Amino acid sequence: MISSSEYGSHSWELLVTVDHQHEEVQKEFLLRVTGDLHIGGVMLKLVEQIKISQDWSDYALWWEQKKCWLLKTHWTLDKCGVQADAKLFFTTQHKMLRLRLPNMKTVRLKVSFSSVVFKAVSDICKILNIRRSEELSLLKQSEDALKKKKKKDKNSKEPVTEDILNLCNSPVSSGLSGSPGLYSKTMTPIYDPLSGTPASSTITWFSDSPLTEQNCSILAFSHPNCSPEALAEMYQPRTLADKAKLNAGWLDSSRSLMEQGVLEDDQLLLRFKYYTFFDLNPKYDAVRINQIYEQARWAILLEEIDCTEEEMLIFAALQAYHVSKLSLSSEAQDFTCESEVDEVEAALSNLEVTLEGGNASNILEDITDIPKLADNLRLVRPRKLSLKAIKPYWFVFKDTSVSYFKNKESAQGEPIEKLNLKGCEVVPDVNVAAKKFGIKLLIPVADGMNEVYLRCENENQYARWMAACILASKGKTMADSSYHPEVHKILSFLKMKNWTMSPQAVSDPESIDMKPECFVSLRYTKKYKSKQLAARILEAHQNVSQMSLVEAKLRFIQAWQSLPEFGLSYYIVRFKGSKKDDVLGVSYNRLIRIDIATGDPITTWRFSNMKQWNVNWEIRQVAIEFDQNVSIAFTCLSADCKIIHEYIGGYIFLSTRSKDQNETLDEDLFHKLTGGQE
Question: Taking every annotated instance into account, which residue ranges of this chain make up the domain PH (predicted)?
Fold first, then answer.
């Protein structure tokens, strides 16, 4: 019975369940509280009533019905809206989580379940020694992939024991803050820039991460590939709709794990979400470079991204070289030649330029006369119900446009046609062995995309024109400082493809102990016999055999970036006014509307032309306005519209980064750009 004085004081009983490990102590407690009692007071009352002497500093109140944390301890129960029917749970904020990394290794570590995902990923990356955590996020595995895994586990006779790397004793993961991130330009190198091995004991002196050298090598080195049988058991998307399912599970970066239904010891995927790899440096980024390489490798093996047979063999040669030669031998430690360091750094600068991350070193070059290209090329226009028409013309490339004339002499007059390439899609159409060097241009017009092919005579001509087209599509001219590195990058990729150039004899397949089926996707294992594959991979291997381990990984990443589909994340959407579903491809610099049946691009919109974007949360519709009064609106059918909204805002946020920032991130700006006003 309650005394009349207590009854009149507007107090009421609040049920709180305590998550503790002491079996002899009760877990449910009734507290008598009033609405003006603050959350900190509730926790104090509760701890006094529990009578267990332990550290309660990591505990907080979780409101089960509302799926939210009560972290503002100065707020009163009334202000939080907590009443007598509320079920509160007093539990730890840091809990164990299993993370599947891009290299398919699983790590188990303590993560904050009360911080927003953006902050939780930042803490995870400190533990794993991965810089630029803003490029990564957490992903729930797609249902199709889980079904395939369950089927595989059901069919396997032996119980599957997963090899898990346990990092649960790390200082960051146990809720204590590690030393401040020493990620400045004066930072002491913690990796050998060629082999990727930890540089003596500096990893434990200067790095934020609790990784031992042994654990670091698990994350920074590639390990033997899985068997072809295991590869066949893994989920492989067959259609654009399947690829769209892969991107449906990204967690909301502005909410906590607990708020999104993640439970203790659940498994999530840690992946690079944004394909703008900024400031890659082999001296600090061995783990990061390896994990990017691994994400690229698995995307190619599982055919999440399409590539030609010639490209697949290059990827196989680079992989086979890693696994069979450098990662498993001490040779990786023996590269100390200074010239090779320069080559690695050159490869890195090329990478940055590719991703629009490189700053112009020679600004004067950008404000002088804009150079132009003029050459004989062949024009191919696809014709419906007839053969393609292939004709030679005199082409002139100036600013961001291509004009073509009947011949060189008539170039002073009016062109037959002038093609403006700003905002177009540029797709390589190359077969080095067959001496085919084509450039496919998809140029936006009022009712879709105009398809035009340019045919070049040789590698050098192709590299110059291809680089000019790529820059023009982004609204840049050949005066831009990234033009020459782009030409060099294209030529180096063509050289890797052209393995007939090397006079070296193909080494004996037996000398490299490899199963070729481990290095190519299933499509090619079905097409060729094992010996045929091995011979072709070894032919391709001649052009990469002199590379150091880190350079080979960087070349692999660079080749991945050269694929037409690189960096595209797909979603099934319904555009306003349309009666059928389409696929929306989200990239680091543009959105592409794609025909779901044929896979052909319909329209491209560049972020550089975007004025604003927002979400109507009631009807879950994303609306975007571009220059020249162009506006689009769509609802997302394969995922929550918040995911696409966050993707767009995230890419715009990442474009604001500069090396002068000394790696301090404006987290508030990220949430403003990605959070929306839900």
Answer: 378-474
